[in-house]
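Give me the fold.
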Amino acid sequence: MKTHAIQSTLLAALLSSSACYTGLDATGELGFGDSTIGGATDATAGDGSDDAPDDDGPDEPDGDGEDPEPAEDEDPFELPGTEARLLPFHVRMTNLANLVGVEKDHFIFDELYMRRIQLGDHDFSGNIAADLAWNAQKMSVWVKSLEPVCGSIQFRDRYPNVSANPTPLLQQVMAREPDAEELEAYAAIVAGAPDTATADLLTCYAALSSLEFVCQ
């Protein structure tokens, strides 16, 4: 039950934060479609109230007929065909090992390797191609498999009090300085934790599951 609660909190936090994939934000353009429709309705109503429909009548339908054409070309209602693309599994593991400061074959990564196919790795002997789409199912498996990593002595020694001071971890994850908005998002995650140990785990899960760390 505790693990499910942590995963639900993390998913909500990650989905509400900025990331390298902004395709879903692009669907906000649907609002422009609504306003355009509203504008067309107003124009039509205005035509009905005109005293000289003979002159405006033939011209306005032609204009109305031309307006939908560019909208069809732009396909504003079509969702993006691709999701965020993960780094290859071996690259993610190399980055993770470097971040924690241990070898790639360290036992804290055993659960990640056991679930490597679920996490998108290939298996040539089993005729399984790499699957680098990042989705909620992979995120759930990834977070669950990070538990030994985030709870390890190696991680805690390298990033002590990580929930109180996530900046050193985020510098490694992002390869840059985190901005104020990002630090506020991590503070919000910590604020919902029942204790410091859980807050440290949540901070670790969120950082190591961020698209900035796992995606191309």
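The two ends are 32 Å apart (CA to CA).
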